[in-house]
Amino acid sequence: MKITVAGVKKEFDDGLTVAKLVNLEKVETPQYVTVTINDEFVESGAFENTILKDGDEVEFLYFMGGGR
Amino acid sequence: MAFSNEQLERYSRHIILKEVGAKGQNKLLSSSVLIIGAGGLGAPAAMYLAAAGVGTVGIADADEVELSNLQRQIIHSTEDLGKAKVQSAKEIIERMNPDVKVNTYRIFVDSSNIADLIKDYDFIIDGTDNFPAKFLINDACVMAGKPFCHAGIIRFKGQLMTYVPGKGPCYRCIFKNPPPKDAVPTCKQAGVIGAMGGVIGSLQAMEAIKYLLGVGELLTGYLLTYDALTMEFRKIKLPSETKGCAVCGENPTITELIDYEQSECDGVSL
Fold first, then answer.
1. What is the pTM of this model?
2. CA of A61: which chain B residue's CA is closest?
């Protein structure tokens, strides 16, 4: 199946969970990333149980704390 | 308000723009923006707002200028070392544009002072370097119904979003709570390329100016991310469903401001 991850279309095996995708994409500090699928938030406790489907658009939103 | 000849010339490149005009320039001159944090983001933001003729610029920062600031905080100079950042910033702005009134607040924002600080300003810019301050600014602005532009920078990356009351998600809609102390690296720990403050801080100034003029589309409902190494900007659509947010939602559970624990490098210049 094809999933768009951070704007890039990629091929993945069926049954991929958000937790697995976070791992595959080598997300930095994965426990603090916010994930959206098709413009909806995924609850942070639901990564293991959320299964992605063909055509989904996934975004990772990262904490960025610097500024001064 | 009638322009002086000097003002007509100073703001001529604005006045000629159909989106600004004499009316828009007058709006800017009668507007006020508060910048919290006079550093990597706050320095360019303050300078562009001042040059643009935003009539009142407030700057809040408790720190003094340190040598490690000067790689990116372009409003401060070598001769300002040891000087209060708000004073150094005020001196530069007054030299840039005598039309601008500068209010300085030599404080770190916390739950006891932020509501009073933001209440008289039209727009707030978050130029802080830590999550407790970023959540505090968000919550205070949501509670007071103030628009603000959030930004963060680290290494070769930066991001920003704009909150306008009643229009799209707030910072807490996306990031529910601050990460634990030291769980996410800061600029001091991870570094930041100096020009990143220039890119993102200038974009924050742009959002403030567009808001004040009432032109164009703001980054409400979007997070703009910038990666300098790949030279990619991405405008990421944020979920519009915000009813459940703890602060801006329909039944907020956060109704008082919170002072979260500061990470180890807060209170020192990053």
1. 0.95
2. B174
